[in-house]
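Many introductory courses stop at the sequence. We go one step further.
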Amino acid sequence: MFADLLKNLFQPQPDPLDELDVKRALTALLVRLARSDNHYAATEIIRIDRIIKARFGLDDDAAADLRTEAETLEAEAPDTVRFTRAIKDAVPYEDRIGVIEALWQVALADGARDQDEDALVRLVANLLGVNDRDSALARQRVDIRS
């Protein structure tokens, strides 16, 4: 199902992603973060659905469908670096800060900070070219709302 997307992501110079593949890659990144502590909690799934509904203007069913696709994509794609490269190439800097904020929302969805999730957010921020200050401010904005 995602063979073409994965093949493209694994090219040395991948083609730009279309809008649907950007949504899939972004959502798969959220799923990867939620799974990084080996506990894919219902609170994280609910948070992912809420994030993608708001970010992409989806209804409940469309958000659940996108997340389900992203769960499959995340399981099939071993490399976080290529997801982030595709997102970095497709998303302006200000929106990448929004991606980091969304990642922090998922990381903090269960009410606890986990060092595996923290490490993955820091790695992704770096790979997306989001500086430490902007990532920390994104986390603080999420912490305040949580």
